[in-house]
Write the structure tokens for this entry.
Amino acid sequence: MSISYSRPLDGIRAIAILAVILFHISPAALKGGFLGVDVFFVLSGFLITSIVLHDIREGRFSLREFYLRRVQRLLPNVLLTVAAVILLWTLFMPASMAIQAGRHGLWTLFYLSNVFAWHNLGGYWGDAAEWAPLLHTWSLGVEEQFYLLFPASIVWLARRQGTRIGAWLAVVTCLSFGLWIYGSATDPVATFYLLPTRLWQLLLGATLAAQRTRRLGPMALEAIGWTGLGMIVTSFLFIHEANEFLGMVTLLPTVGTALLLVSVADEQTTIARLLSVPFLVKTGVLSYSLYLWHWPLITLGKIQADLYGVPQLAGAIAGAVAGIVLAWAAYAMVEQPLRQRGPGRSRRIATIAAGYCTVALVSLLAIFRDAVPDPTHRFDTPSFYGLLYSAGKTDDPRRVTKSSRYRDVYFPPQPPGSDDAWRSGGIIHLYGGGSPKVVVMGDSHALMYSRLVDTICKEMGLSVAFLGVDRTPVFFTARVNPLFPSRREAREFDEARMQWLKQWHPDAVFIIDSWDREEPKLFAEKLQPFLRDVSPLARRIIFVAQVPVAKWGEKFNLREFMIWRMRPGHDFPRLDADPKEPVRKQDVAEAEALTAVFPNVRVLRADLPFYREDGSIRWASGRSFFYADDDHLTDVGAEQNRALFTSAIIEAGTK
């Protein structure tokens, strides 16, 4: 098998990296652009297997030489990227974010970035992951772990099963794909990031390289190639980030890439010539460097744009341009010179080793910086007890507390309990005996107020039930999410909530949600049928208005940010709401309009205590800090609405 340079393969790389960059600049521009990584996985498996098998058949394969090549090819640019990220985050970001970058950088150096992301950042589309400058290196972790294990395995197979390598690779590919499908439904975050469930994509390319098939005719190759390209483009256009449970749909870009590789193998097809145009080839040559540099600079550009009142898109574009320039410079001045294998190779490897030790030390220094979000103790330690009231699964609190956003928020230890308490009525406190008179339903915003409602009900001697689950809308839409990863379980949750309301007929049902997740029209279309179903089952339905969402709390530790941005004279900066503020106001107006249709519905304006006269957010009072992040109140923040919630419960006629 020849492994001579193939221009169409660089063309495939170009398609993948351009899709990824466009997605990261603006997900709306190419919703499935993140699947460019899946294309890279198949291509990597194909290339590495081609190289290893070629050297084995030539009788000159060496594990030592293989790993030295990988070190020279991949490590120099990674070292430079990690060092640059830590420097930029130290200069332009609050200390806690620089510490997080240092921690992630250290894991990246050991090619365990995917494990770090899984343990510390949560889902790829979560808030914590969105602003992590080294998030994208998770895929490098997957590939390097594959490179570490695969060569020895293929050598073993070549010696003992020389004629059946392709068959054995196909078997393991199927097993890994089975894990992918199972994991997509049971643990989508781990499934997305980890090697065992991503192995099938790499091994599909490997199987293709190992399998010797007879030459197909020109027309068949053309049809296969265009079909493959069509599958890739279709996945980029129609698979979107909101679907966190990719499952079977990832066959589209993965199999599409395999078909494309079959078609361009001899570079004679029309599509091979198309992929060989100079722009695509040059972009493909730069693809590794572009991948490393684009995301940190886009992230930095978006954050800086926000800080200075510039549209995020402008910051993302500026960051992408800067990333492309730095990627070219890193390729020309670092990556290319240090990957040479001629005279002076030992000196180049020593340079890489010295660089590795230096960047590791820089990462450690960043980690051990003193970064207390509130070093002068201006505010009391904020707390959030909401996770104790979840009626279903929650994210691991250890992962939550590792996020820089919650660095100084106290989360109480969660007692061992069932992940499906909703099946038995949720979290129930029978302070007044009998069935619950007060019910709280909704997502994490319902959890946010649950402790407040619980203490009010305890004081009033009222039995109360909590049926809130993080990330799960109050509407009966059987919405799949990481905590209800299958449509069946999501539907069972909706049916259970209805069942308990029909059985209890409570006096007051609080519906509390992050209402602005829906577009206003869709929100109105969902709210009315929901109220039609629920309002006959309770004496009073209480719609709780969403509090204003702080513009900066999604990216930063909000307490640290406010102190970091203090003006001369010790004045705190103004804290404005995010761009969805009009959506939230419209949602309240829609809910208030429906009170004429449903007389037992009341709108509780829990948002009003958090506005100042000038329209900015009232985020603290004295030593009390009201916000845990951008849209969740601390326990003391929720307490600002005690009188409102108490009066709502009394007016519901509870007895």
Observations:
- DSSP finds 25 helices and eight strands in the chain.
- Residues 7-367 form one domain.
